[in-house]
Amino acid sequence: MASSLVKLFSIFFIIISIFTPQALSVVPEECQTETNGCTNKEKALPLKLIAIFSILIASVIGVCSPLFTRSIPALHPDRNLFVIVKCFAAGIILATGFMHVLPDSFDMLSSSCLKENPWHKFPFTGFVAMLSAILTLMVDSMATSIYSKKCNNGVIPEGSVPIGGEQQEMAVVNIGQFHGHHHDPMPSGSADQQLMRYRVIAMVLELGIVVHSVVIGLSLGASNNTCTIKGLVAALCFHQMFEGMGLGGCILQAEYKALKKFIMVFFFSVTTPFGIALGIALSKTYKENSPTALITVGLLNASSAGLLIYMALVDLLSTDFMGPKLQASIKLQIKSYAAVLLGAGGMSLMAKWA
Prior knowledge:
Elements: H1 2-19, H2 41-64, H3 80-109, H4 124-153, H5 165-173, H6 188-222, H7 226-254, H8 258-281, H9 291-321, H10 324-327, H11 330-350
């Protein structure tokens, strides 16, 4: 599993490195970036270097903080507070998709710098986001089925209750709703399936966040507008920290070994700084208003938005709210909804700056 994670993210970085130079196309005169008193390449470079280290630190703090909650009794995964914090983080991920990534894609793919046909005659952003959500569902469903079959074909420990026939079918159907908070004894097969489910969720969610993180890092690194960069750095630090909390909670529930946890934490933490460094390296030639750049980044944002929205609604919020723990307590549901609204509202407010 660890080697497959490394291969997956390595392939992604290679693809980004291959396709980014394609954005170095000639920009039409009417689409040239306007220069003003804030545009200063020499002053922008130190700000970008500060951004690399500050966002790296914020990302590490955010994604690692849930991994140490087992040592804090109040934040143990079985406690109510952990569920509330997880809902808060899910609200942040949901708002990231709706309020940050999706609007950026709409702006880019409806830009006047693109040809009228086909970009202004068809809603590519919504179409790609829809396809991305469906594709995420396919990956989610098939990966869960594959892992479930592997789990069922494995050796069942003595004393556990084997799951077969109708029981097995019901376990697969309810796998997204049984959230591991029930205190009755659970058959080992069901527990193993739930664990595999958590691992699928963690991997797919990280993939969507990584795509988004590289894109926003690239945009920041290529910009020479000091007025924009200053506000953007602070907003991205909070953004990465809270988004990392959501991912960290999923990694915690997936119960990976130390090496796998390190790999997932590492790739989440370095993607935005990597994007910034790539943007700095290409700042002389990268033109954010070039047609190829607008199309490439716009489509990436649309696909990332569809993935993040699906994961937040289906795999995070729906799983918790339809699970036995929240269904058993209206009071806890109200607190969790308040946490979702607080997380989504806070991240929506940040859309003003980032």
